[in-house]
Amino acid sequence: MPDEPSASRAEATRGRLLAAALEAFSERGFHATTTRDIASTAGMSSAAVYVHYRSKEELLYELSHSGHIATITMINDADDPDADPATRLATVMRAFSEHHAKGHTSARIVNYELTALEPDHLREILTLRREITRRVRAIVDAGAESGQFDVDDPHSTTNTLLSMGIDIARWYREDGHLSPAELGEFYARTSLRVVGARPDR
To answer: pLDDT digit string (tens) for 127-139?
Structure first.
């Protein structure tokens, strides 16, 4: 069993490689990135990558897994099941949108490089994505059942809401005219329009 300082150094090195992989994937795309690119960005030798990760795909999987777990945690923190559906949806979509703006580089890799994952890894990530969808769908269903939302197709509505937030990572730039917080407010209001929210109910 490694001593604590050695374990800490290994963890730090793994984190450094993940950060380098994120930067390299963002600049070049997953398929055009080599392990040498990742090692160079991290200031290490190519051999050092394989000490900690079996392949660049495993690095992508780690980034994707941690990114999706962070999104689920964010939804958990934002959602209050005791609040009315409109408040819940606005709060969750505000946090969801701000989350994707602040972490736009990571979110872009996590959401748009899925097809590069190996089948077992992809299945695991898709399970996490279904859980994210389930959380938002529960709010949409609650609003529809209470009459607060005017929704013809809860499935498509949920996908629309999630797609709106996720797509921020594709186009967001830090020098844009809206900050992450301002985008969050905009998407919170827009999400209520999508579901035809009726605050008086």
So the answer is: 999 999 999 999 9
